Amino acid sequence: MTVAAATLTVTGIEVRKNLMVQIKLIAVNNIGTRLRVNGDATASYSFRYSMNGAAHATGASQNELSNMDTSLAGQTEYHVIYIENLQDEEKLFICQGMGSNASGAGTAPKRRELFGKWANTSNSITEVNVVDYYAGNNFAADSEMTVYGSGE
């Protein structure tokens, strides 16, 4: 990405049974990271997540996979997401992410685990969107997302 933005998008993803998404986000301002696929912002997502090993929280009939992470200005997040992408089945997600939390060796990074699904059983994923929950262009220009696929 060459300019700050509120959304990162990869389109034209070749249909594959398995996808892996790698995301690096640099926060210009506070960010709340959310994930959508195929531009779908309808209540077709559900998830379970935990921050730093704490008790799980859940969301059902949501407009996105929420709470992948939340970071403050100047922090960096990394996420790796594995997706089962079978056209006629719900799409399953395993997301692991971390945030820098604060600079220096005196502060441990934070970690987030999220397990989710997109309840669409008609379409394969061909687009991945990372959306900032807060208004504004909060993903810095060096933020990036890469999508890999395998299996026919």
Contiguous uncertain segments of 5+ residues: none
CATH topology, what is it called?
Jelly Rolls
Tell me, rounded to a whole number, the average pLDDT. Answer: 90
User: What is the CATH top level name?
Assistant: Mainly Beta
Oligomer: single chain
Strand content: over 45%
User: How many separate domains?
Assistant: 1
- Spatial shape: globular
- Proper CATH architecture: Sandwich
Helix/strand order, N-terminal first:
EEEEEEEEEEE
Number of strands: 11
Coarse structural class: mainly beta
Question: What is the topology, as strand order, of the major beta sheet?
Answer: 5-4-9-8-7-2-11
Describe the structure in your own words:
This protein is 0% helix and 52% strand. The protein has 152 residues and is an all-beta fold. The protein has a single domain, classed as Jelly Rolls, CATH 2.60.120. A hairpin with a 6-residue loop joins strand 7 (76-84) and strand 8 (91-99). The protein is globular and about 45 Å long.
Name the descriptors:
single chain; 152 residues; mainly beta; Jelly Rolls; seven-stranded antiparallel beta sheet; four-stranded antiparallel beta sheet; 11 strands; 0% helix; 52% strand; globular
